[in-house]
Amino acid sequence: MVAPQPRIGDWYRLGGGELFEVVALNDDDATIDIQYFDGTVEEMDREDWDTQWDEGFIEGAEPPEDWSGSVDVDADDEQAHGGEALGEDTTPRAGSLEGLDLFE
């Protein structure tokens, strides 16, 4: 069986256990950067990826419902800074350019 081309943002499972996400691909070095659910980042050779997939050690997985484990965000932080939890408008807007001196 041919190993799938990993894509940034896709989730996989190692040997039926640890979840990880592909976070970067480097075609020049033929490496794949992966981040485990606990936040640990690791680099894997494309050749190792193919071998481990063929041996059934890597398998596709659904993203976890609680993705905050890999980004170290507390639920309290998310509510306090998310805006929506506080009823604030979270539409991105450009800041004012008032006071900007283009000739400084």
Key terms:
alpha+beta, single chain, 104 residues, SH3 type barrels
Overview of this structure, please?
With 104 residues, the chain is an alpha+beta fold. It has a domain at 1-63: Roll (SH3 type barrels), CATH 2.30.30. The chain has two helices and five strands. The chain has helices at residues 46-54, 75-82, and strands spanning 11-14, 19-26, 31-36, 41-45, 58-61. It has a five-stranded antiparallel β-sheet with strand order 4-3-2-1-5, covered by helices on one side. A hairpin with a 4-residue loop joins strand 3 and strand 4 (41-45).
Topology:
Layout: E1 11-14, E2 19-26, E3 31-36, E4 41-45, H1 46-54, E5 58-61, H2 75-82
Largest sheet: 5 strands, antiparallel
Distance N terminus to C terminus? 63 Å
> Into which percentage range does the β-strand content fall?
25-35%
SS-derived structural category: alpha+beta
Number of E strands? 5
The name of the CATH topology of one domain is SH3 type barrels
State the strand order across the main sheet. Answer: 4-3-2-1-5
Order of helices and strands: EEEEHEH
Please state the oligomeric state of the protein chains shown: single chain
Q: Spans of 5+ residues with little confidence (pLDDT < 50)?
A: 77-84
Helix content: 10-25%
Which whole number gives the mean pLDDT?
78
Shape: elongated
CATH architecture of one domain: Roll
Number of helices: 2
